[in-house]
From TrEMBL:
Signal peptide: 1-28
Domain L,D-TPase catalytic: 250-372
Protein name in UniProt: L,D-TPase catalytic domain-containing protein
Annotated keywords: Acyltransferase, Cell shape, Cell wall biogenesis/degradation, Peptidoglycan synthesis, Signal, Transferase
Organism encoding this protein: Micromonospora qiuiae
Any one Pfam family match given in the protein's UniProt record, by short name: Big_10
PROSITE patterns: LD_TPASE (PS52029), PROKAR_LIPOPROTEIN (PS51257)
The keyword Cell wall biogenesis/degradation belongs to this UniProt entry's keyword annotation: yes
Length: 429
């Protein structure tokens, strides 16, 4: 026992000596510093935080019952670049567009009712270091109360240069909801043209450019109202997109003094037509009107309005509606003998059968007609009277502050939503 212990002690001393020599040799080979740390050792230095920061404000994380129209709203600071990604529960990416102010992102279409989504916003500062924020949320179930949204025009129609874009709603839109709705109503025109939305009533909004549409333009408008809260528990039923074309610039000008209509196409006079306007007791309206409806054959029936003594029922050819009150351009063979000399109509623009047919074949819904020098001014709202007010007055009908377009726009630039037909009964001839 004692001999074995001595041997173990000698063996342990030998191992300790070898270990000490090895450590000394290693220290000598690595050029050790005081403290025993070589250059391979470093103090842990903290990395500076990324310059950019980002947070998602809407929808809040884990939010429930989110409207299907929701936008991703975020706050990014010191960001040189910001990207937004939205994915459904299966990981499929949702298309969308970043707002021009860089503070929100809107899906290209309404989200699925009851669906789950995750939004990821990434902001990168000038240091090149990205930061991200995420928000997972669930869309509300499909609501019972939905507002129908319709357009007067349908896809691929060709209209005149004075055609307003007309959108109607199935119920009144409370004033406090109109601005949010209008933010989701966009118009794209090629070539670019300045314009604005104008609320003519709680159920109807129209868009017109500052000047007549340029001939040959392509126009697309969108109303991204699907799932959008519209007041009192009502939501937009669906998004709406319409693509149209603008025809040649055809303008009709009627002068009561000369009893003539001048028809100009693209700035050049192509025809002069004798007319008979409304007699003194039923004068035609002076102002800028728009062809709203074209009827090859119709019947003017005024018995309900004027009674059995003054009312009449007359077959009419080549009728083009100008006002809701019943003013038309139409063929009137009974007044051909006085056309160009005397006014005998009940307010309409009378032309001959031949000229009525020519006009009918050369005009489109949306073509403008300017009537001058009569005893009565056109009443605002009696037809599409959008062009009968100044631009300064028109922009006051917008639910959003009007911002004039930049002068730098070029002709190649774009500027950034079942047909409804005019069904009012004709009343004058």
């Amino acid at each position: 026992m004692r001999v074995r212990d001595q041997r173990n002690r000698r063996r342990g001393a030998l191992v300790a000596a070898v270990l000490a020599a090895t450590l000394a040799l290693t220290s000598a080979c690595t050029g050790g510093k005081s403290g025993g740390q070589g250059p391979g050792w470093q103090d842990a230095a903290e990395e500076p935080a990324p310059k950019a920061s980002v947070s998602i404000t809407e929808p809040a994380a884990d939010a429930k019952d989110v409207p299907a129209s929701t936008a991703i709203i975020f706050d990014a600071e010191q960001a040189q670049e910001t990207t937004v990604e939205l994915a459904d529960a299966a990981g499929k990416a949702v298309e969308g567009t970043l707002a021009t102010d860089g503070k929100s992102w809107l899906p290209a279409k309404a989200l699925e009712y009851g669906g789950s989504y995750t939004a990821t916003v990434t902001a990168t500062g000038d240091d090149g270091r990205p930061v991200t924020a995420t928000s997972a949320f669930t869309v509300m179930k499909q609501p019972e109360k939905q507002v129908r949204i319709s357009s007067f025009l349908g896809d691929d129609q060709t209209v005149g240069v004075a055609m307003p874009l007309i959108v109607k709603f199935g119920r009144e839109i409370p004033e406090k909801y109109r601005a949010d709705l209008q933010r989701r109503m966009t118009v794209t025109s090629t070539p670019a043209q300045e314009g604005v939305w104008h609320w003519v009533s709680p159920t109807e909004v129209r868009y017109r450019p500052k000047e007549f549409w340029q001939a040959g333009s392509k126009v697309s408008y969108r109303v991204q109202a699907g799932g959008l809260p519209l007041g009192d528990g009502w939501y937009g039923r669906a998004d709406l997109t319409v693509d149209i074309k603008i025809g040649p610039k055809l303008v009709m000008t009627v002068d009561n003094k000369t009893k003539r209509m001048t028809v100009a196409r693209d700035g050049k006079t192509i025809k002069t037509i004798p007319v008979s306007l409304g007699k003194k007791s039923t004068p035609s309206s002076s102002g800028t009107m728009v062809v709203m409806e074209k009827l090859r054959k119709t019947v003017f029936d005024t018995y309900d309005e004027l009674g059995p003594e003054d009312g009449y029922r007359t077959k009419i050819d080549y009728a083009q509606r100008l006002t809701w009150g019943g003013e038309f351009i139409h063929a009137a063979p009974w007044s051909e003998g006085v056309q160009g000399r005397t006014n005998v109509s009940h307010g309409c623009v009378n032309v001959s059968m031949a000229n009525g047919a020519w006009l009918f074949n050369n005009t489109r819904v949306g073509d403008p007609i300017v009537v001058k020098g009569t005893e009565r001014k056109l009443q605002l709202g009696n037809g599409w009277t959008d062009w009968n007010v100044s631009w300064e007055e028109y922009v006051k009908g917008s639910a959003l502050p009007y911002e004039p377009a930049e002068d730098a726009l070029t002709e190649d630039d774009d500027v950034t939503d079942p047909d409804v037909s005019a069904s009012e009964t004709a009343t004058t001839a």
